[in-house]
């Protein structure tokens, strides 16, 4: 979808001319400079770039956990603050962030409880979410009885509880082993497909970004800028248009490697040589 095809009010996320500086004891740190970015409803956009380039800062601005120094952020046409108050998005960050004294079901139910969903409806929804992430048999377990991958699935189920039109995910699979990670990627592709949610996804793995995304936003080292936006053209669908199916076979396809190369080249072309902290395997 081209930018012109969508009215501003219809963007899931619109970041316009955003700068973010932090005043620290050792001076001013410019974390983000001149960021423009739009995400269409249902679109999957990854942010990739070296450590410290401002990916988490940008996510925090969109989630209204901090404010831009200048520029504007809109989420479904609303201010970031209004979107937060209206629960327009689910969040899953690097640490699963589960409450250890609550069961799996209790953790997933939390956002529903906080927003006054009646208990019968809540039970139904939790059962549905447990099924979606393949944890129906673990409803009564506690987080410390689960593997890291399972905890992360609980966090994802929780982020989906209120059927958000948008998911904000900051390295949600960063702590997982490679096999679990690939499973979770496939799972996320399925879930975002089923729910039609837009996703903004931070990663420093190039293959992960390629596998998941419609577009990959490559950021430059500090001060973080958008160095390049790479459209993913994958599978049979090399001409763009409808999304290629994201399955394990895709990881072996030539178009997949071509996209990995395109993203790697975009990273290396960023100002200041090298892309430390970025996985290329
Ligand atoms: N609260 C803060 N105070 C001061 N500096 C910060 C703060 N948050 C982030 N930064 C700095 O902003 C830059 C971007 O950080 P971050 O967004 O966490 O990067 P990334 O997620 O891409 O690794 C880094 O130099 C970091 O040290
Ligand atoms: Mg980060």
From TrEMBL:
Keyword ATP-binding: yes
Molecular function terms, GO-annotated: ATP binding; ATP hydrolysis activity
InterPro entries reported for this sequence: AAA+_ATPase (IPR003593), ABC_transporter-like_ATP-bd (IPR003439), ABC_transporter-like_CS (IPR017871), ABC_transporter_ATP-bind (IPR050166), P-loop_NTPase (IPR027417)
Chain ranges of the ABC transporter domain: 13-246
Pfam family, one: ABC_tran
Keyword terms: ATP-binding, Nucleotide-binding, Transport
PANTHER family assigned: ABC TRANSPORTER ATP-BINDING PROTEIN, TAURINE IMPORT ATP-BINDING PROTEIN-RELATED
Protein name (database record): ABC transporter ATP-binding protein
Organism this protein belongs to: Agromyces protaetiae
